[in-house]
Amino acid sequence: MPRVSQAHLDARRQQIVDAARSRFASHGFAHTSMTDIIAESGLSNGAIYRYFTSKDEIVVAVCEQGTDALPKALTAEAVTGFLEHLRARARDSNHARLVAQIYAEAAVSPQLAAVVQRQLAAMRAAIAELVPDPRRPQAGEIAEAFVALCAAYSQQLAIRGDVDPAPFATALMAIIKAERARSLS
């Protein structure tokens, strides 16, 4: 019997995660069964259960892959670009709806909550690193506000559809500038 390469195994696992992500975004976790994921993936029951023993494991796998490209700087242009990226992902792949599902499920699943908490902490740390030296004392506060406002924008995209990021970018820049003014006083 020929051996299956690791690349093949990884591709099959990713096929399952991609199918689940699509189904969760369009129907939610509660309205998606393992049968739905199997049908969406085009694989057999055995293939799915080779990689995952439950829907909960698949939910965690989907969440673990959910990272966004953060801005490279805390400038108006970079922040607006990041929010436009969130908007495009919401429009093109229902990503905001998926994130809303993940947050709701994390509220009742300790395993998923741990994954989400690690991701949010990593986001806050990455944003804090972007805060220029004169504002370093407020880096944690700026990062906390940045991540919270971006999460709120994502929730708005999930519920309201295509939402203009301009007011959110303005609010984020006001927070960043206000923190700078406070640190200089």
Report what the structure shows.
The chain is built from nine helices and no strands. It is mainly α and 185 residues long. It starts with 5 loop residues before the first helix and ends with a helix. 31% of the residues are buried. Residues 179-185 have low confidence and may be disordered.
Topology readout:
Blueprint (H helix, E strand, L loop, with lengths): L5 H22 L6 H8 L3 H7 L3 H10 L11 H18 L1 H12 L3 H21 L8 H22 L5 H19 L1
Helix pairs in contact: 1-2, 1-4, 1-6, 4-7, 5-8, 5-9, 6-7, 6-8, 7-8, 8-9
The average pLDDT is 89
Query: What pattern of helices and strands is seen along the backbone?
Result: HHHHHHHHH
Distance between the termini: 73 Å
Proportion in β-strands: under 5%
- Helix content range of the residues, please? over 70%
Which parts are unreliable, with pLDDT below 50 for 5 consecutive residues or more? 179-185
Number of domains: 2
Q: How many helical elements? A: 9
Rg over alpha carbons: 19 Å
Name the structural class: mainly alpha
What is the strand tally? 0
Main beta sheet: none
Query: What is the approximate shape?
Result: elongated
List keywords for this structure.
mainly alpha, 185 residues, elongated, 2 domains, Arc Repressor Mutant, subunit A, 9 helices
Question: Nutshell version of this structure?
Answer:
The protein is an all-alpha fold and 185 residues long. It has helices at 6-27, 34-41, 45-51, 55-64, 76-93, 95-106, 110-130, 139-160, 166-184.
